[in-house]
Structure formats: C-alpha cells, structure tokens
Structures
1.
Amino acid sequence: MELFIFEGFTAGGNTAQASEDLAKHSLEIFGIGRGTETAAKNIKIERTENGKPYSDTVPWEFSVSHTGQLWICAVSERTVGIDIQEIRRIDHEKLADRFFTKAEKKYCRTAGKEGFFNIWTRKESIVKYMGTTLGKGISSIETVIDGTPADRLIIDGAVIHMTEIEIGADIKCAAAAEETGEICIKTLN
C-alpha cells in the first residue's frame, strides 16, 4: 500500500474537485511506480451510491480522507479504507455512546479523547473499506478486543487488517486493508 499525503488542502473552493484531482495524481504516481503509465492516463473517478470513490479506468483500489489542511489517499492492489482525524475538542463521550460498542466505550473512558480518535479512525476506515456509511450498522462492529484496539478483524467472513499510521502530533490515522504489509508514505507537492 502507498499512502499519498498533501499538506495545504483547504476547504475553500470546490473541495470535491480538488480531492478528485489529488486522487487522480496519486493513482497516476502509483501506476508509474508499477510500470503501468498507460493505465493511469485519463483516469475517471466515479462514486458509489454511498459516496465511495472508485475508478474503472485503473486496476487499483483507493480511499481518501482529509482533516484540517491534511489530505491523504491510500492506494493498493487490494481493497483499502483510510481515515485521518485531527485530535480536536469534541464531545467524544456523546459520540462514543452513539457509535461505539460497549468494549469501545470502556476503552475510550480509559484512553480519553486520544482513545476515542483511535477507535473513530478505525471505524471510518472500515466504513470506507466496506463502502458503507456510519449509520448502516457500523456501531455493531467491534474494534476492541481484550481491552485494546484489534489489529485484525473478521467482518462478514472477511479478514480486515487494521494499521495505525503515524502522521504527526495530534493526528490519528488508520487503514483497513485486505492484507498487511509495508506502507510507503509519499508527499505530494
């Protein structure tokens, strides 16, 4: 998996178009790295009814997320989901009560706001991996096993590997993927 990061992403203007352009650029770089430049040309990005971006013009899977001025795109040859969040001031207990399982809520009470964002980014990355929405049963997916966030989950018979990715202070990032492996981080200019 390759993770493309762009610093300086702003909410001004057309963020959807800016995100799509960055995703196309990420897919192009991913393709060039695999010697398949032709597959990366004329990339067209579509969205599922739940909003998950995909492309029939390249043979790779990708997922995007942004927080503040950070934008990221995970690209893989297998199914992937990514989420990034700034650790910020929110009513994390109220959100945990709404979306988290009993074990996840207990973990958050112990780990506080940082623990909340550990679980939140995992759930969001799973949502993106599955191509669904938070409101469609995600609160029943258990991401904490034996009191700690799990590295491997089985959901609907599929094995999903969870990886926390270090991006920077006060930032949480998690990836959900079909397989484990090295994550190569690249910065976009």
2.
Amino acid sequence: MINIFKRKLKTDRQMEIEDIKKDIKECEFLLSRNDIIFNMAVDEKLIESKIYEREALLHQYDYLVTQLREKQKEAVTVE
C-alpha cells in the first residue's frame, strides 16, 4: 500500500516538473521575442515598455527555475 502511494507522488511530482519546464521554455521564448522587438523599436514608449516587460520576464524566469530546483530536490529525496 505504501509503495503505491509513493508511486503516485512521484508521478505527480514528475508532472509538476514537466509543467514547470514547459513554463520555463515559454518564458525563454517570450524573452527572445522581447529582445527582437526591443532591438527593432524606435518609439521611446515602446522601448520603455519592453524594458519593463523584460524585467518582469526575468523575475518570472528566476521564480520558475527556483521552483524547478525545489521540485527536483523533493523528487530525489522521495526516491
């Protein structure tokens, strides 16, 4: 009975890890798109908005990487 419970937790953790990895990939894509638009922008307001957007994306990326590390650490300690 306990082994079944551990397997279920491991599966849930692995799904969470995969979801976080997808979110990180999406964030990386958005950062790349932000860089492209920033480099092509000439309007000061657009440039400023892309700077703020980049900062927000970098904070989101940092948060996701931290979450991924924590979930991976949890997955290793359970095994």
3.
Amino acid sequence: MKQLFWIAVGVGLSVLVVVKGREYLAKVTPKGFTDEVVAQGQGIVTRVREFVADINSGMNEREAELRDALGMDEPAPRRAR
C-alpha cells in the first residue's frame, strides 16, 4: 500500500512539473513574450480610457452644478477638440 501511495505522489508531481514547465516555456518564448506585452499594453490603454471617461464625467457634473448655482439656463456650446 505504501508503494502505491508513493507512486501516485510521484506521478502527481511529474504531471505538475510538466504542466508548469510548459506554461513557463510558453511565457519565455518570443511569441509568448510578445503576447504578454500586447496584453499588458491593452490593459494600460483600457485603464487610460476609463480614467479619461471618469474625468470627463466629473467635469460635466461639476459644470452642471456651477451652471445651476449661477442660474445659467442654457448650457454653453461644446468646443470641438
């Protein structure tokens, strides 16, 4: 029974080493490295877009508050950017 246990442990560790080794090799190959850089770049672009959207939203809310506080009825014309 002990031998079967140790064989099972050895097989399990072997499978783990092979799977993790393949993942590691996939990351350090040129294609894997390129894929990782592209994914990180896309993440940064997404965060920057969300940040800009939050800034614009806050700016529009504050402008509406100021217009209401100053009694201005019609909004100012939007400037082309």
4.
Amino acid sequence: MNYFMLTAGAAGGFGGYTSIILMVAMLGVMWFLLIRPQKKKDKQQREMRNSIEVGDGITTIGGIVGRVVSIKDETVVIETGSDRTKVRFQKWAIQDVEKLKLDEPAAPAAKDSAKDADKDSDKTSAKAEK
C-alpha cells in the first residue's frame, strides 16, 4: 500500500510544485486583500492620533466629544460639556479629530475689510464722476 502511494505521487512529476505555487499564490492574494489594507488603515489612524494639538475637537471610541486641553506621551485630557469637566483618555481611544480652524475668527474680519473696500471704491467712483 505504501509503495502505491509513493509511486502515485512521483508519477505526477510537478504535483508537489503546483501545490506549493498554489499555496504561495493564495497567501499573496490574502495579503493584498486583507493584511495590506488593514495596515494602511492602522497607519492613517496612528498619524491622525499623533497630529492632535491643543484646542482640537475629538470624539472618543465611546462617543464622548470634547476639546483637547493637554497632551502627554500616551494620554490626552479633554474638556466636555457646559460645566467644562476634564477627562483623561489614552490616545488609542480617540476615534475622530476635528482640527482647530484658525480662519474662523479671521473670516468676520475679512468680511468687514471687504465692506470697507466696497465703501472706498464707491467714494473713489463718486469723486471720479465729479
């Protein structure tokens, strides 16, 4: 019986190589479809968590929303609610970051300067007509 199995396996010739090639191909497909995208996602999350600055709005995995007050090595302190309760979290518990927008206070000033520019252009056009 054992002799039959040995000769049957050797009769195929490339039978051993094709199964090895098939296994390597399956591992390659698994890597491209499962492992590689997950590593990319993990890298993006790590970069997002490392780019947090004081004043940014964050949402934790548990759904708590607040503003960052201080940042230590692996912890973040946030203020939540109207009573400004401070809570400390691990960085890995941060799900989403809303960056602090510095142009918001400047936007009303830009509108005022645009109005002033319109008034100045009206004055110069009125002088030109005279």
